[in-house]
Task: structure prediction
Amino acid sequence: MILDLKRLPILETERLRLEPLTAGDAAHLYPIMGDPEVMAYWDVPEIDDPDVVAEIVNGQVEGMKSGRAVHWAMRTLHGRDFLGSCDLSEIDRWNRRAEVGFVLGREAWGQGYALEAMRTVVAFAATSGLRKLTARTHLGNRRSESLLEKLGFNEEGLLRGHILKDGERRDCRVFGLLL
Result:
């Protein structure tokens, strides 16, 4: 069976606990999504309204209920400090594929948390019957590109003018991993 999401999984690593995202996590995501440096390579600019972040998180929770995605809150294992979130989204059961993504608060950058979390998400995807993962980065986002390469993803193409942000068209790189 491909990704039975009737019971949303909690995943643990050496330093992290990945728990299904809840509406209450919007308060933790708000300062992260309000940081211009964090959001520099996201499809949308920084968000300065907590209600907008709450709407986004509510949409993600609904996506989990419908089986289209799994979004995890990324917390430290022992202190339960909120670091960010990661996900499997755009789940396509017929073709056995999904897209991966993550966002991490700036204070947690450079400590290997995103790599640790995403290794676990990739392993979960593989054991859940998925056979292909994709990811998309904005051109110039070397941190995310490097992380994807460490996970074994390969660049598969360039989407020219794929995103309109701040009035400008931006190119995106597409990465893929066969499981």
